[in-house]
Task: inverse folding
């Protein structure tokens, strides 16, 4: 399908929206509520564009392209409308980027920067701090919320937990949990899907606060270490340390979703309880630290002695259903090819 | 449509559950069969609250109706299955709905309603978890589920099949890798002389053992009798996770030589003679294989702490000190040069192909796209799908006058197994202790309020925990998990095993309970 966007001829498949056609052609349109996996909510109106022949501005996120459509995302009228929406959002809360966890990865910040804001036009007085710190892993800052509705959709339609809703009306409207309970006292299961979709710094991961600015991290894709679903994660790593876990939206099978353990259960690896040196138990029952050579030699010697005296089937091994495939392979190879026993199993049944 | 039996999916596999919930929101039907009114039942079209351990009677009752009322997939059964006539005669004779209702506690009307719904929608996917397998009748439970799906012709296509949701991140992989006493990597039998020869050649050894080895329960039993002198436990906290902790600890204590690889000191490493400090998740390059047989990459982001080393390196070093020199020197080398070469079902999976999304085996060649579902067009790996008669048997221990409650066990959302990881990741802030979940009716009868301390005891041990009075649990049941050492359900559970699979009956034993005064 042929359309023109800002005078530029573009090809786009039928069935696409103006927003998708623009994105595919490298043209940015400010959006606040739109998210591909949620679909067009057309709530925020920040994506207003002008289309030749249409008396009204149209929202790019939910207007399908038609053959020969002439679209203007940067006309005076379109930009004025976009600015108005973004201006209202900027003015309706404490958007203090300098100290916001989301700075650098904030869609309101992106829109304001793109639209060359120097200041906001509306003043509604001061906003008293309105932070819900009641849940263990998610920080809710109501004054950074722009009421885009993404978290509501994600909680109800993607993870179908039905916890988040919009309560009250007008200036008083805000996101609420169950019957406007503090998040930590609500039925929220802390899956963090809302933090994954929040375009601003309203819903952030507590564990990550103050750990790294977004531009300092490297993202490493990996697989969750908890259940057997095999969710794909993105580890946000700064100086070799995981500071946050999100999920790759295009990763199979979970497509951006995680549970409380997958999103927030990663930092056990930094516990001070980690074993850091081989240990040998003395006759008295106490463990003492040992070198790798001493501990490995002891195990090899004991195994050889036992095989000599009692045969290879006097040794048995339990492999690990948590560790890598390659580790289990090595262990069964050790048992079969070196110790010469098939006494190798793991908790396959439980 | 989904038929979920014995699966507490919203807690044990939360992300998988979101897809079921999405489908239900979009109009799919969901049948839940479970002793507890757990969260998934909130989304169910029909819910059958069966008695613990009555699965086979319930399923056979369903199949009785499907056969009697001529509602099954005759074409699928005729073309793709065998053993049906014998099965049919047995089911029609022995499992009238009335009998199924008596055993399962689900009304004849409800069983019929479920049978009719099953017959009216196709395909239907069956999901089960340990509610099916952790019984002395576990193998027969699985057989019954398979019988149902063959009868309905719900196999060999997308959104159908028999889908066990696997518990650990890599329990599928550990099986695939041959960490089982009877098979090499890729499920190649140790008893097959040709396979033995193939591995002898690949590993440069002779005399590989061809007799299947011991399974875990037999290993533990072998410790006090000295049949097993040395036990090597890699990353398992058996002292908390096996049934009947007192007995398990007695076994571990009597080991002549116990070696552990672990990332933390655990209740199990206390019994070790040597403990090796291992690399954890994200400290080594490797792969996990998920429930859907998908081989996924696991990437290293930092070195293990202190002197901790990767597990593959530890095994390689022991081999070297026993006279065997192995070449592969990293996870990727082990996979690409050994595993995918030796396991034909994974021959097409190489690290270069799983940089993004993983691949699902069988994937026999480098061009193969992987296999999302098995038994396509009703072609089973053994040829015809075999109907196998499975009769209901009660759990080994049932409630009686002395122990009037059934204890059933499982997992809770905020912790993972024995909590070695989740307790060190802040999850105690949400769930700080074990509880005994009991019904409102039993609580009332015994004068127990929510949060009261209760003493729960079985023939094997006793625990004192807080009562959680909940409508999830039916009268007559105590439900607990094994996340905490204190109040761990495994002080109480019964170490009896399915005769085929050697899976323990974690889901049913008899207990008594009283308010702690």
Result:
């Amino acid at each position: 399908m042929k359309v023109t966007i800002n005078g530029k001829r573009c090809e786009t498949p039928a069935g696409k929206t103006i927003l998708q056609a623009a994105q595919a052609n490298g043209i940015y349109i400010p959006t606040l509520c739109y998210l591909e996996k949620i679909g067009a909510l057309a709530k925020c109106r920040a994506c207003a564009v002008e289309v030749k022949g249409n008396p009204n501005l149209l929202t790019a996120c939910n207007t399908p392209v038609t053959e020969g459509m002439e679209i203007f995302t940067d006309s005076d009228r379109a930009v004025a409308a976009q600015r108005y929406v973004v201006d209202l959002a900027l003015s309706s809360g404490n958007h203090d980027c300098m100290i916001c966890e989301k700075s650098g990865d904030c869609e309101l910040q992106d829109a304001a920067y793109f639209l060359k804001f120097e200041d906001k036009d509306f003043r509604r007085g001061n906003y008293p701090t309105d932070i819900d710190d009641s849940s263990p892993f998610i920080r809710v800052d109501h004054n950074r919320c722009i009421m885009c509705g993404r978290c509501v959709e994600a909680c109800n339609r993607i993870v179908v937990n039905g916890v988040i809703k919009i309560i009250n009306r007008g200036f008083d409207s805000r996101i609420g949990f169950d019957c406007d309970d503090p998040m930590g006292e609500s039925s929220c299961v802390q899956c963090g899907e809302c933090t994954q979709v929040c375009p601003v710094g309203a819903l952030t991961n507590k564990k990550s606060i103050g750990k790294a600015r977004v531009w300092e991290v490297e993202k490493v894709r990996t697989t969750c270490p908890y259940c057997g679903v095999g969710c794909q994660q993105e580890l946000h790593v700064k100086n070799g340390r995981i500071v946050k876990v999100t999920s790759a939206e295009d990763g199979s099978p979970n497509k951006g979703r995680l549970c409380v353990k997958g999103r927030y259960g990663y930092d056990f690896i930094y516990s001070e309880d980690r074993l850091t040196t081989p240990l040998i138990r003395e006759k008295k029952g106490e463990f003492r630290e040992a070198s790798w050579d001493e501990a490995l030699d002891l195990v090899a010697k004991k195994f050889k002695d036992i095989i000599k005296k009692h045969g290879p089937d006097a040794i048995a091994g339990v492999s690990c259903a948590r560790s890598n495939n390659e580790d289990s392979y090595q262990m069964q190879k050790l048992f079969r090819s070196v110790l010469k026993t098939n006494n190798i199993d793991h908790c396959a049944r439980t | 449509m989904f038929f979920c039996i014995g699966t507490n999916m919203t807690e044990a596999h939360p992300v998988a559950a979101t897809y079921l919930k999405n489908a239900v929101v979009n109009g799919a039907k969901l049948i839940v069969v479970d002793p507890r009114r757990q969260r998934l039942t909130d989304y169910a079209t029909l819910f059958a609250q069966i008695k613990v351990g009555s699965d086979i009677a319930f399923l056979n009752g369903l199949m009785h109706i499907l056969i009697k009322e001529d509602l099954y997939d005759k074409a699928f059964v005729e073309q793709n299955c065998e053993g049906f006539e014998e099965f049919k005669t047995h089911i029609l004779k022995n499992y009238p709905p009335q009998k199924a209702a008596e055993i399962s506690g689900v009304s004849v009307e409800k069983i019929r309603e479920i049978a009719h719904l099953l017959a009216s929608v196709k395909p239907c996917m069956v999901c089960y978890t340990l509610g099916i397998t952790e019984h002395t009748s576990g193998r027969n439970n699985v057989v019954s589920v398979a019988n149902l799906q063959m009868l309905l012709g719900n196999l060999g296509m997308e959104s159908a099949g028999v889908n066990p949701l696997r518990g650990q991140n890599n329990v599928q992989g550990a099986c695939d890798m041959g960490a089982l006493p009877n098979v090499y990597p890729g499920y190649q039998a140790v008893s097959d002389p040709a396979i033995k020869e193939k591995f002898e050649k690949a590993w440069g050894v002779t005399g590989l053992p061809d007799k299947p080895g011991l399974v875990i329960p037999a290993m533990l039993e072998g410790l006090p009798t000295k049949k097993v002198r040395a036990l090597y436990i890699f990353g398992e906290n058996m002292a908390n996770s096996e049934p009947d902790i007192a007995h398990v600890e007695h076994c571990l204590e009597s080991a002549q030589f116990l070696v552990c690889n672990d990332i933390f000191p655990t209740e199990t490493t206390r019994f070790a003679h040597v403990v090796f400090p291992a690399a954890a998740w994200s400290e080594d390059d490797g792969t996990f294989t998920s429930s859907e047989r998908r081989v996924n990459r696991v990437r290293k982001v930092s070195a293990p702490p202190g002197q901790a080393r990767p597990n593959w390196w530890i095994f390689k070093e022991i081999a070297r000190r026993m006279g065997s020199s192995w070449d592969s020197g990293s996870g990727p080398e082990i996979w690409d040069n050994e595993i995918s070469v030796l396991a034909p079902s994974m021959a097409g999976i190489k690290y270069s192909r799983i940089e993004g999304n993983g691949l699902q085996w069988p994937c026999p060649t480098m061009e193969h796209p992987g296999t999302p579902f098995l038994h396509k067009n009703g072609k089973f790996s053994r040829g015809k799908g075999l109907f196998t008669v499975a009769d209901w048997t009660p759990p080994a221990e049932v409630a009686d006058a002395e122990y009037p409650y059934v204890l059933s066990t499982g997992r809770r959302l905020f912790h993972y197994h024995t909590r070695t990881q989740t307790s060190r990741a802040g999850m105690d802030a949400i769930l700080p202790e074990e509880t005994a979940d009991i019904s409102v009716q039993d609580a009332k009868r015994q004068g127990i309020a929510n949060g009261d301390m209760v003493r729960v005891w079985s023939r094997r041990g006793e625990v004192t925990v807080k009562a959680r009075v909940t409508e999830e649990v039916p009268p007559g049941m105590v439900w607990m998990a094994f996340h905490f050492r204190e109040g761990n359900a495994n002080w109480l559970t019964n170490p009896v095993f399915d005769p085929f699979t050697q899976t323990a009956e974690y889901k049913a034993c008899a207990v008594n309970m009283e308010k702690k005064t």
